[in-house]
Structures are given as C-alpha cells and as structure tokens.
C-alpha cells in the first residue's frame, strides 16, 4: 500500500477482514503516527492513544487519543491531548485511578532526539461523547532520561507500578541506547511521588512490560537494544525486586513488544520475531534523520551495541503456557517487508508493522493496535476462533 492508499482507508470504520478477524485504520489529522497504547475505560469503551506529527523527535509531535464506544462500528475522530511546543511528546500510557475511576495520561517529553533529557509527565483526562481533552500537565519526580511505554500495574498493596527505562549516556555523549537500563517506578500516594527500583543486569533491556502470574509472581518482558531476543525477568514478591533478565525463545529486533495475561492463564506476546542475526539491514540511529548531529561515537564506552534498522515485520502473536518462559505457538497477524531505515511516513520507504498494543475483551477476543508504515495506527480484532487456531 502507498501512503495515499493508507490515507484513503483512515476512516476509523471497522470492517471484516477474513475468518475471525476485523480491522480498521484510525483517522488522524497528521501524517506520522506511531506507538499506540490500548486500554479499556470504565464505561466499556476502548481507548487508543499514540503520538503523531511530521517526524519522531520533532517538536510538532503530540499525543492523540481516539475511542471506540461499546457496540460501535467506527472509532471516534482523534483528539490532541498534549501541547508542549518545544518538546517531542511521545509514548502515551493511559491509566484509570482505581479509587476515583478517573483516567489519566502519562507520556514522555524530550528535546529533539536527546532522550537523555527526557521527562515523564502526567495529565488528567476527560473522555466522553467521542472526544477527549486533557488538564494541566505535571512532571513526575523521576530522573531525567526516564522513558515509559508499557501499562501501569497496581501492586498487591495498592501501590502504582510504572515500568520504565532510563536513557543514560557515558560522560559527554549523546543518547544512542547503549546504556539504557530497566526499572520500575512505584508510588504509594497515587502518583504524587515515586521511588525507583532498577532491574539488575538489565543494560539494553527496555519497554519493560509487566504480566501478573498470580500468588505474588509477576513476569516482565523486554525489548532489547542488542536486537537479539525478547528477554524475561520475574518478581516473586509482587514487584518489589526482580531477577536478572534472561532470553526467551522469541527473537527481537530492537522494536517494541507487548505481553498480557489471558483469562485462560496463558501469556500472549505480540512482537516482530526477527533479530539482527537474520538481517543485515542497519541504520545509524533512531534519530539520524533529524540532522542534529552527535559526538561521533556509535557505541559509547561501557555500553552494549545498540542495533537499529532490523526489519519490523512480521507482526506475530505468540502464546505461552509456562508463564512466558517459552512461546511455541505462533501465528502471523500482519506481514510485509518491515523496512524501517527511515521514519518518513510519506515517501513510501517505511513499511514497518510495529509497536503493538494489545488487550483482551470480556468475550475472549483480542484487540490489537500497531504502527502501519508510520502513516497510520491500525486496529485489528481477533476472535476466539482465530486465536484457538494457533
């Protein structure tokens, strides 16, 4: 599909797309759309947030949000819910306060490609009647360089656990991803203040995604800057401490993943199961198109080799029956070249199928959202027959 073909389909209408499957391309007022996040709202609506503008890292990147009302056959128009004109606002995470039922938005904000200067912000949301608006933002008391992507999870004592990664550099260097480490920020006062616990031995592990397994056990799954495999860590004390991450049997291309616990006890993982050993496609960095320059070092001393440009396709649903230690059952959701050597959404060169979000519906269907060629956010519904055929 050309960028023009994709734009013509960005109506938000959900249409049948084969046995056990339906899909839609969400409407958006901007050309570059990336990093979807899905969550159910208290009224049963499905909310999807993402960031969009002209190019990732530019200051015209803002957070957008659309909703799918219960029983509706089309998504609402997108509402812009962030407003900093000087920073690139990225990676939305929507969370509903269990005490008040009020939704809120966490997101990142950075100057250009300098992720080491990123802050995490929170703003209240008002969502209703097909539109959304946000309140005044507040910067969280987290170290500069903190980055979020995955869902916030309540702890067994009611504390909020926000998985994140810390974008670090060697002295004097710009961010490249080579020193990133995983951590969990915990708040016992409903987001007013935060404590930070790093995951040991996690250099290169990012996009930490928490999956409760029951009886105080939580598994965490990671994207890897080394573009080798999806990694897994586990907590046996409700998220207060974590084991050193270890490789699963699922390849990873240094692109985002999402994992959820299904109602039947299985763990579902949505990702691009491709790694650097399977492709020689490379690009210099995530932000090499911004023209900001750097200090000339692709791999700052003491870090890991951060690999960029490995194809971001196919998009595959993987299922595990052992708590996410292995994923022997897999089925392709969407396929294509996955070319991601450019973030440009309008020249047709980017063909990635990436950055998935996933939630399970009460009827057992899975709702997915992901980046389609950087031009659109695509929504796919897979019913139980499709899933059980894996």
Automatic annotation (TrEMBL):
* Every Sialidase domain range: 44-368
Instruction: List the InterPro entries hit by this protein, alphabetically.
Output: Sialidase (IPR011040), Sialidase_sf (IPR036278)
Which UniProt keyword terms apply here? Hydrolase
Q: Which Pfam families match?
A: BNR_2
Question: Does Repeat show up as a keyword for this record?
Answer: no
Gene3D superfamilies (UniProt xref): 2.120.10.10
Q: Which domain of life, per UniProt?
A: Bacteria
The GO molecular function terms of this record are: hydrolase activity
Q: Which PANTHER family match?
A: BNR/ASP-BOX REPEAT FAMILY PROTEIN (PTHR43752), BNR_ASP-BOX REPEAT FAMILY PROTEIN (PTHR43752:SF2)
Write the protein's name: Glycosyl hydrolase
Organism in which the protein naturally occurs: Amaricoccus solimangrovi
Its lineage reads: Bacteria, Pseudomonadati, Pseudomonadota, Alphaproteobacteria, Rhodobacterales
């Amino acid at each position: 599909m050309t960028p023009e073909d994709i734009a013509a389909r960005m109506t938000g209408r959900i249409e049948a797309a084969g046995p056990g499957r339906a899909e839609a391309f969400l409407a958006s007022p901007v050309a570059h759309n990336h990093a979807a996040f899905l969550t159910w709202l208290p009224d049963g609506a499905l909310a999807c947030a993402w960031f969009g503008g002209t190019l990732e890292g530019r200051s015209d990147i803002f957070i957008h949000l659309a909703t799918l009302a219960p029983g509706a056959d089309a998504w609402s128009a997108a509402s812009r819910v962030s407003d900093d004109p000087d920073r690139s606002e990225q990676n939305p995470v929507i969370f509903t306060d269990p005490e008040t039922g009020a939704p809120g938005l966490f997101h990142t904000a950075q100057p250009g490609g300098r992720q080491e200067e990123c802050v995490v912000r929170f703003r209240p949301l008002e969502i209703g009647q097909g539109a959304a608006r946000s309140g005044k933002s507040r910067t969280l008391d987290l170290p500069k360089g903190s980055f979020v992507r995955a869902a916030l999870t309540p702890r067994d004592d009611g504390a909020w656990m926000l998985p994140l990664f810390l974008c670090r550099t060697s002295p004097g260097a710009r961010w490249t991803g080579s020193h990133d480490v995983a951590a969990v920020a915990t708040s016992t006062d409903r987001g007013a203040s935060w404590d930070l616990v790093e995951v040991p031995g996690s250099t290169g592990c990012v996009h930490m995604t928490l999956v409760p397994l029951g009886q105080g056990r939580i598994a965490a799954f990671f994207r890897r800057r080394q573009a080798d495999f999806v990694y897994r860590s586990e907590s046996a004390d409700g998220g207060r401490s974590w084991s050193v991450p270890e490789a699963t049997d699922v390849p990873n291309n240094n692109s985002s993943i999402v994992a959820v616990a299904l109602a039947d006890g299985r763990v579902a993982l949505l990702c691009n199961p491709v790694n650097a050993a399977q492709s020689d496609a490379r690009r210099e960095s995530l932000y090499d198109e911004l023209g900001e320059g750097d200090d000339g070092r692709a791999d700052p001393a003491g870090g890991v080799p951060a690999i960029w440009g490995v194809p971001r396709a196919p998009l595959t649903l993987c299922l595990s029956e052992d708590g996410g230690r292995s994923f022997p059952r897999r089925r392709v959701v969407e396929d294509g070249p996955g070319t991601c050597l450019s973030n440009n959404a309008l020249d047709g060169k980017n063909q990635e199928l990436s950055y998935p979000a996933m939630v399970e519906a009460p009827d057992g269907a899975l709702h997915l959202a992901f980046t389609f060629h950087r031009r659109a956010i695509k929504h796919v519904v897979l019913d139980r027959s499709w899933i059980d055929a894996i």
